[in-house]
Amino acid sequence: MQLALGNFSSFTLLWALATFGGFLLSLLLIEIGEKPDIGLVESAVGGLAVALPQSFLLKQPVFRIKWVFSSLLGWMIVAATGIGAIGWVVPTTSILALRILSGLIYGTISGLTIGIAQWLVIPQSVPLAWRWIFVSSLSWAIAVPIGSTVGIVLRHFTQLFLGEVIGLAITWLVVAILTGIYADKLRSG
Protein backbone atom coordinates (compact mmCIF):
# COMPACT_ATOMS: atom_id res chain seq x y z
CA MET A 1 0.00 0.00 0.00
CA GLN A 2 1.44 3.37 -0.99
CA LEU A 3 0.72 6.52 0.94
CA ALA A 4 0.34 9.81 -0.89
CA LEU A 5 3.99 10.73 -0.28
CA GLY A 6 5.71 8.98 -3.21
CA ASN A 7 8.33 6.57 -1.85
CA PHE A 8 6.86 6.79 1.64
CA SER A 9 5.30 3.31 1.94
CA SER A 10 3.46 1.83 4.88
CA PHE A 11 6.66 -0.12 5.64
CA THR A 12 8.60 3.16 5.73
CA LEU A 13 6.09 4.51 8.23
CA LEU A 14 6.41 1.37 10.37
CA TRP A 15 10.22 1.54 10.17
CA ALA A 16 10.17 5.20 11.21
CA LEU A 17 7.85 4.41 14.13
CA ALA A 18 9.99 1.45 15.22
CA THR A 19 13.23 3.43 15.00
CA PHE A 20 11.88 6.55 16.67
CA GLY A 21 10.01 4.49 19.26
CA GLY A 22 13.25 2.64 20.02
CA PHE A 23 14.99 5.97 20.58
CA LEU A 24 12.20 7.11 22.92
CA LEU A 25 12.51 3.83 24.84
CA SER A 26 16.26 4.37 25.07
CA LEU A 27 15.63 7.68 26.83
CA LEU A 28 14.35 5.66 29.79
CA LEU A 29 17.62 3.71 29.87
CA ILE A 30 20.34 6.18 28.87
CA GLU A 31 21.17 9.52 30.38
CA ILE A 32 21.55 12.21 27.74
CA GLY A 33 24.12 14.82 28.54
CA GLU A 34 26.81 17.14 27.31
CA LYS A 35 29.61 14.67 27.71
CA PRO A 36 31.99 14.00 24.84
CA ASP A 37 31.67 10.26 25.21
CA ILE A 38 29.12 7.67 26.12
CA GLY A 39 30.24 4.32 27.47
CA LEU A 40 30.14 1.05 25.58
CA VAL A 41 27.42 -0.33 27.84
CA GLU A 42 25.14 2.67 27.29
CA SER A 43 25.86 2.53 23.58
CA ALA A 44 24.94 -1.15 23.46
CA VAL A 45 21.74 -0.53 25.42
CA GLY A 46 20.76 2.32 23.10
CA GLY A 47 21.62 0.30 20.00
CA LEU A 48 19.55 -2.60 21.31
CA ALA A 49 16.59 -0.32 22.10
CA VAL A 50 16.57 0.85 18.47
CA ALA A 51 17.59 -2.35 16.64
CA LEU A 52 15.14 -4.67 18.38
CA PRO A 53 11.95 -2.91 17.18
CA GLN A 54 13.51 -2.56 13.72
CA SER A 55 14.23 -6.29 13.61
CA PHE A 56 10.56 -7.19 14.05
CA LEU A 57 9.90 -5.62 10.66
CA LEU A 58 12.42 -7.84 8.86
CA LYS A 59 11.21 -11.10 7.33
CA GLN A 60 13.84 -13.74 8.03
CA PRO A 61 14.36 -14.73 11.70
CA VAL A 62 18.11 -15.28 11.21
CA PHE A 63 18.39 -11.85 9.59
CA ARG A 64 16.52 -10.33 12.54
CA ILE A 65 19.00 -11.71 15.07
CA LYS A 66 21.99 -10.73 12.96
CA TRP A 67 20.53 -7.24 12.50
CA VAL A 68 20.33 -6.71 16.26
CA PHE A 69 23.88 -7.93 16.89
CA SER A 70 25.36 -6.00 13.98
CA SER A 71 23.64 -2.82 15.15
CA LEU A 72 25.00 -3.33 18.66
CA LEU A 73 28.47 -3.84 17.23
CA GLY A 74 28.20 -0.72 15.07
CA TRP A 75 27.10 1.48 17.97
CA MET A 76 29.80 0.08 20.24
CA ILE A 77 32.47 0.78 17.63
CA VAL A 78 31.23 4.36 17.27
CA ALA A 79 31.33 4.80 21.05
CA ALA A 80 34.82 3.27 21.23
CA THR A 81 36.18 5.72 18.63
CA GLY A 82 35.72 8.68 20.94
CA ILE A 83 32.93 10.21 18.87
CA GLY A 84 30.44 8.86 21.35
CA ALA A 85 27.02 7.51 20.50
CA ILE A 86 26.02 10.53 18.52
CA GLY A 87 22.30 9.88 18.86
CA TRP A 88 22.46 10.34 22.63
CA VAL A 89 25.21 12.92 23.08
CA VAL A 90 24.59 16.66 22.84
CA PRO A 91 27.44 18.73 21.37
CA THR A 92 29.28 20.82 23.94
CA THR A 93 29.74 23.85 21.70
CA SER A 94 27.11 26.55 21.36
CA ILE A 95 28.61 27.90 18.13
CA LEU A 96 26.09 27.01 15.43
CA ALA A 97 28.58 26.74 12.54
CA LEU A 98 30.76 24.33 14.56
CA ARG A 99 27.74 22.25 15.47
CA ILE A 100 26.71 21.96 11.84
CA LEU A 101 30.23 21.08 10.67
CA SER A 102 30.93 18.62 13.47
CA GLY A 103 27.45 17.13 13.03
CA LEU A 104 28.14 16.60 9.37
CA ILE A 105 31.52 14.96 10.04
CA TYR A 106 30.51 12.86 13.04
CA GLY A 107 27.18 11.97 11.49
CA THR A 108 28.91 10.73 8.35
CA ILE A 109 31.46 8.68 10.30
CA SER A 110 28.86 7.23 12.68
CA GLY A 111 26.41 6.42 9.90
CA LEU A 112 29.19 4.84 7.86
CA THR A 113 30.32 2.68 10.78
CA ILE A 114 26.80 1.55 11.66
CA GLY A 115 25.93 1.09 7.98
CA ILE A 116 28.95 -1.17 7.37
CA ALA A 117 28.18 -3.26 10.45
CA GLN A 118 24.56 -3.70 9.35
CA TRP A 119 25.46 -4.27 5.69
CA LEU A 120 27.65 -7.23 6.68
CA VAL A 121 24.53 -9.15 7.75
CA ILE A 122 22.19 -8.19 4.93
CA PRO A 123 21.54 -11.34 2.87
CA GLN A 124 23.53 -11.50 -0.37
CA SER A 125 20.27 -12.10 -2.21
CA VAL A 126 19.22 -8.48 -1.61
CA PRO A 127 20.08 -6.55 -4.77
CA LEU A 128 22.38 -3.58 -4.28
CA ALA A 129 22.55 -4.16 -0.52
CA TRP A 130 25.87 -2.26 -0.41
CA ARG A 131 23.88 0.94 -0.85
CA TRP A 132 22.77 0.59 2.77
CA ILE A 133 26.21 1.81 3.85
CA PHE A 134 25.71 5.08 1.99
CA VAL A 135 22.06 5.42 2.99
CA SER A 136 23.04 5.13 6.65
CA SER A 137 25.98 7.50 6.31
CA LEU A 138 24.02 10.11 4.36
CA SER A 139 21.02 9.86 6.69
CA TRP A 140 23.14 10.59 9.76
CA ALA A 141 25.13 13.28 7.91
CA ILE A 142 21.86 15.09 7.16
CA ALA A 143 20.07 14.41 10.45
CA VAL A 144 22.74 15.34 12.99
CA PRO A 145 23.25 18.93 11.78
CA ILE A 146 19.48 19.44 11.54
CA GLY A 147 18.82 18.06 15.03
CA SER A 148 21.78 19.87 16.52
CA THR A 149 20.61 23.16 15.04
CA VAL A 150 17.07 22.67 16.35
CA GLY A 151 18.49 21.70 19.76
CA ILE A 152 20.68 24.78 20.15
CA VAL A 153 17.95 27.13 18.93
CA LEU A 154 15.37 25.67 21.33
CA ARG A 155 17.84 25.70 24.21
CA HIS A 156 18.73 29.32 23.47
CA PHE A 157 15.11 30.47 23.43
CA THR A 158 13.83 28.35 26.33
CA GLN A 159 17.02 28.20 28.43
CA LEU A 160 16.14 24.54 29.04
CA PHE A 161 18.28 21.50 28.30
CA LEU A 162 15.07 19.88 27.08
CA GLY A 163 15.57 21.81 23.84
CA GLU A 164 18.68 19.71 23.20
CA VAL A 165 16.74 16.51 23.84
CA ILE A 166 14.12 17.64 21.33
CA GLY A 167 16.97 18.26 18.88
CA LEU A 168 18.16 14.67 19.38
CA ALA A 169 14.60 13.47 18.81
CA ILE A 170 14.50 15.41 15.52
CA THR A 171 17.81 13.77 14.56
CA TRP A 172 16.35 10.32 15.16
CA LEU A 173 13.13 11.15 13.34
CA VAL A 174 15.03 12.29 10.24
CA VAL A 175 17.26 9.18 10.35
CA ALA A 176 14.20 6.97 10.83
CA ILE A 177 12.44 8.39 7.78
CA LEU A 178 15.48 8.45 5.50
CA THR A 179 16.62 4.93 6.36
CA GLY A 180 13.04 3.67 6.30
CA ILE A 181 12.65 4.61 2.66
CA TYR A 182 15.53 2.29 1.74
CA ALA A 183 14.96 -0.36 4.44
CA ASP A 184 11.85 -1.49 2.58
CA LYS A 185 14.20 -3.03 0.00
CA LEU A 186 16.18 -4.84 2.72
CA ARG A 187 13.27 -6.66 4.29
CA SER A 188 12.70 -8.76 1.23
CA GLY A 189 16.14 -10.33 1.68
Written account of the structure:
This protein has 189 residues and is an all-alpha fold. The protein has one domain (10-186). 69% of the residues lie in helices and 0% in strands. It contains 6 helices and no strands. α3 (61-80) packs antiparallel against α4 (96-119) and α5 runs antiparallel to α6 (162-186). It is globular and about 50 Å long.
Briefly say what this structure is.
This protein is mainly α and about 190 residues long. It has 6 helices and no strands. It has helices spanning about 10-25, 40-55, 60-80, 95-120, 130-160, 160-185.
Question: What topology does this entry show?
Answer:
Blueprint: H1 10-27, H2 40-55, H3 61-80, H4 96-119, H5 131-158, H6 162-186
What's the tally of helices? 6
User: What class, by secondary structure content?
Assistant: mainly alpha
**Beta-strand percentage?**
under 5%
How confident overall, as mean pLDDT?
88
Q: Tell the overall outline.
A: globular
Rg measurement, Å: 16 Å
Q: Tell me about the biggest sheet?
A: none
Distance between the termini: 19 Å
Number of strands: 0
Jot down its keywords.
mainly alpha; 6 helices; globular; disordered N terminus; 189 residues
